[in-house]
Amino acid sequence: MRLTGPGENGRERLGEIARVKAGPSGAHLKELGDHPDGIPVVTPADFTDDHRVDPRHLRRVPRSHEPKLASYVLEAGDLLVVRQGSLGRLALIEPGQVGWVYGSSCLRVRLNPQTPVMPEYLAAYLSQPQTMEALRKPALSGTVPSFNAAALRDLDVVVPPWGLQGEIVDTLTDMNAAITAKRAVVERMEALRPSVFAALLEGTWV
């Protein structure tokens, strides 16, 4: 590994610090649908803008599929990266999502044990515009843009000291919270606008 000493930024190929695994084939998920007691399957449609998984509309497969999906089970700290279509979108798996599996359009990135990289930092790094551009460059040409696990493994990752990783994560978390709050205000104002217009037109606006 080319990770350097305290106070220095290292640089490493993603494949050296993490294991990358493509999602199961479509044949494994052919019964994906509404199974209340089934295994939740995370797909790109469930990713949020702040790199989380929205569980509200998850589809599932029957529990009988558990043995053949065992190698696709998710752990806390795993990253899912879209490999088809909207390349570069990703989601970080949280403790409450352990035991779920992921769909065919995703690549799972699992940091190696003892690797001095925070999953949250890696999620932030992979979501940066420059990184997304690097991910898209080797994308396979076709009707639907895509890249494979090998292309993601070849990605260079800048690895700062642990303390700096924490500072980066904390700062970006605060910024995301502020962005979310402002978006909520904007959405509220947009929802109110028709009512305000009507009230102004009728002279009832105070």
Which helices and strands appear, and what pairs or packs with what?
Layout: E1 10-13, H1 14-17, E2 18-22, E3 39-42, E4 59-61, E5 79-82, E6 90-92, E7 101-102, E8 106-111, H2 119-126, H3 129-136, H4 149-153, E9 156-159, H5 162-202
Parallel strand pairs: 3-7
Antiparallel strand pairs: 1-9, 2-8, 3-4, 5-6, 5-8
Total count of helical runs of at least 4 residues: 5
The CATH level-2 architecture of the largest domain is identified as Alpha-Beta Complex
Distance between the termini: 66 Å
- Corresponding CATH superfamily of the largest domain: DNA methylase specificity domains
CATH topology of the largest domain: Adenine-n6-DNA-methyltransferase TaqI, Chain A, domain 2
What gross morphology would you assign? globular
